[in-house]
Structure formats: structure tokens, C-alpha cells
Design a protein that fits this description.
The structure is a homodimer of 196-residue chains.
Chain A: H1 3-18, H2 25-32, H3 36-42, H4 46-69, H5 75-84, H6 102-106, H7 108-134, H8 144-165, H9 169-183
Helix pairs in contact in A: 1-2, 1-4, 4-7, 5-7, 5-9, 7-8, 8-9
Chain A binds a DNA duplex (18 and 18 nucleotides) through residues 3, 24-26, 34-38, 40-42, 45-46.
DNA sequence: GTCTATACGCTGATAGAC
DNA sequence: GTCTATCAGCGTATAGAC
């Protein structure tokens, strides 16, 4: 891995751990084993490096998620599998965590990757809900966009509860609660996770 | 308001806006119109001041919430009213936002108020769900703790989606989705917000 | 491309006068 | 209780040599 790459990867980790406000150029350089000069040669400053790092994290997350969501199964099964997948809960979401950073939110360049990621995710889940409704799997009363937003919010809020308590349990509890509520709207009662 | 009070209130606002990592002693002093000496006279340092400020914010939030939740109405109505109440969505939650702060999470003194707040909130909502089940309002299959966790997570995650997009809409959408899912588990179909 | 030097303001305090 | 002075180190760079 070359110096530029190491700087980007170092910034990705620090943004995840500490946020933009809590990430210093010095810390990036230490993590990347790069000098001051290298960093300012490859990037105009902290902001530009953070932007590149953020875009990469967003891309990575989207790739993983799409893989999960396009796997086989009914609509309910796919959504449940996504919600219930293994996560490093106490580390939080590498994208969502930056929504609390005041300087990320204030800078359109840094905020855009967050917005794009969550817009895409909500749309993608809404599409699956809509398919489920079209195939008679879900009640037609289910609003696809609102249901999708609720599912994404449960994940993001689950991270908050878990970190606040120092345990992954509240995350798991919230996700179980959400899956149970969604399952109850399925016309055929498919138990998620067990192919019928 | 005396100097000590102004320091606490200044710290509360800065913790909400910028988090612990992003809040500097100098900024607190400016906001409180207090000198360096005053701050270190009343508090041993940044951490102690933050702890006092955090406890007060937690107490305030709990007071407001309890008022909402103990108002009249059916279980569904009370939960829906709490979820749908007016909030300054783009500012985020003054407690939940600190769950992303690495130094808050690393310090048990600072983390405790977060943990206590969310533990209390989940228990309180679970109690209401349980009452709803006992009175035949909700399906007995509803797990009270998981449902409560999901509702709290929707709120916290809703803030994340709203801030990421720069609009309150995704928060509203997620809450509508959650209320709709919960309403569907009510045995009598009460439309929340409209007394039947 | 990477290194060292330099800069200026801020961070998070402590000390001591008033 | 509040003020001013002082401090070592960090944050976020820029300049210029190699």
C-alpha cells in the first residue's frame, strides 16, 4: 500500500473512531506512518483527505449492503437478513456516526456522502417492500418509504442505544422488535431466518 | 443567573452542538461570559463541568418525557404522541448525540447519564406496551422490551437520517413508519392522534 | 514525493494577585 | 470568586531543501 492509500485508510479509521472534529492531521500521519510533508503533498488539507476517505467508506458500505439485499429469499427474509446480519455494534456505523459531527454537517462536501448513502439505502429498502406488497407478501397498507425509513432508523438508533449502554444487547433488542413488527404485516406468516 | 449556572448552561449547549471532543474550555467561557479563573474555581476541569452539564440535560429530558408519557389516552395513543411530538429535529438529541463521542463512551462518569437515560426510557415505554397488552389493546405476541427498544431506536436513528439529509423529513417518515407498524398490532384499530 | 523548519493560535491547565 | 500571567504541547498549516 502506497503512502496516499495509507493516509486514506488511516483517515477512514480515525473518522470512524473519533469523527471529523476529533481527528487531527498528526494522528492521521502517525496511523499512516507518513510525514507531514507527504500528507500535504497528496491532499490540500484535512478536509480534502476526509472527503476522499468518506467517499470510500460510503462506497464500501453500499457495496456490502447491496450484496446482502440482492441475495435470494422473500422480501421479508431479505430485510430481516439485512437487519440481523453480524455487525461490530459497539464501533457504530462508519457513515451514520458522522451525522453527529458539527463540521461534517456544516460542510456540503463532507455531508454529501452521508446523504447519498442514506437516500440510496432508504430507496433500496423501499423497493424491496414494494416488491413484497406487489407479490402479496405484505399488507398493501404498508407505506414502502416510511417502512424503509423506520428500518434504517432502527439500525442507526440501535447503535446509539448500544454505545450508550456499553453492550450490544439493546441493538439486538431493537432489531428483534422491528423484525417482529414487520413480520406481523406479512400475509403468509413466514418466520424470518427459517425458510418455509 | 450566577457564573456557575452560566458555565453549566454554556457547557450544555456546546455539548449538544459540538460534543465533548469538540467543546473547548475557551468556548465555554466565551458562551458563559466567564473568565478562565472562574471556570477552574467552580470545576476541577472540562470533564467535571461536562459531567454536571450532562446530568442536568439527562434530568431535563427525563422530566419532559415523563410528562408526555403519563398524559392520558390508550397505550398506543401515548406512545404515538411521544413519537410524534414536536422536536428540533436537525439539532438532534442532546443526550443521544453524545453516544458517538469517543471520550464520553470511554469515560464511565460521562457515559453513565446516557446509559441511565436510555435504560429508563426503554423500561418506561416497555411498561406502557405491557399495559396495552394487559388491557387487550395490543396483541399478546408483542414483546414489550423489544418493541420499546425499537421505538427509541427509531427516534435516535431518525435524527441521524435527518441530519445526514439536511431535512427533517426522513425523521418524520421513520416515525410514521414505526407508528403504522405499531398501530397494526392494536386489536381495536385506533387511529393514533384521533380519539375514537 | 518526502523531509525538516517555522509559525501562530488554541488547548487545558496551574499560580498567584486582588 | 474573579482576574491576569504563564506554560508545554497540539492543530493546522506553509516554505523550501533534498
Amino acid at each position: 500500500m502506497n503512502t496516499r492509500e495509507r493516509l486514506i485508510e488511516g483517515a477512514r479509521e480515525l473518522l470512524w473512531e473519533r469523527g471529523y472534529v476529533g481527528m487531527s492531521p498528526k494522528a492521521i500521519q502517525r496511523k499512516a506512518e507518513a510525514g507531514q510533508g507527504s500528507m500535504y503533498h497528496h491532499f490540500s488539507g484535512k478536509t480534502e483527505l476526509a472527503e476522499v476517505a468518506l467517499r470510500r467508506s460510503a462506497e464500501t458500505l453500499r457495496g456490502q449492503t447491496e450484496k446482502q439485499l440482492s441475495a435470494g429469499g422473500s422480501a421479508l427474509e431479505r430485510i430481516a437478513a439485512y437487519l440481523l446480519r453480524d455487525r461490530d455494534v459497539l464501533r457504530g456505523c462508519p457513515i451514520g456516526r458522522l451525522a453527529q459531527d458539527p463540521e461534517v454537517i456544516a460542510d456540503p462536501r463532507l455531508r454529501r456522502p452521508l446523504n447519498e448513502t442514506f437516500s440510496w439505502l432508504r430507496d433500496r429498502l423501499a423497493e424491496i417492500v414494494r416488491q413484497g406488497v406487489a407479490q402479496g407478501e405484505f399488507s398493501p397498507e404498508l407505506d414502502a418509504a416510511d417502512t424503509a425509513a423506520a428500518m434504517v432508523a432502527v439500525l442507526q438508533g440501535g447503535y446509539v442505544l448500544a454505545r450508550a449502554s456499553g453492550s450490544a444487547e439493546p441493538f439486538a433488542s431493537a432489531v428483534r422488535g422491528a423484525v417482529a413488527l414487520l413480520s406481523a404485516r406479512a400475509t403468509k406468516s413466514t418466520t424470518p431466518g427459517h425458510r418455509s
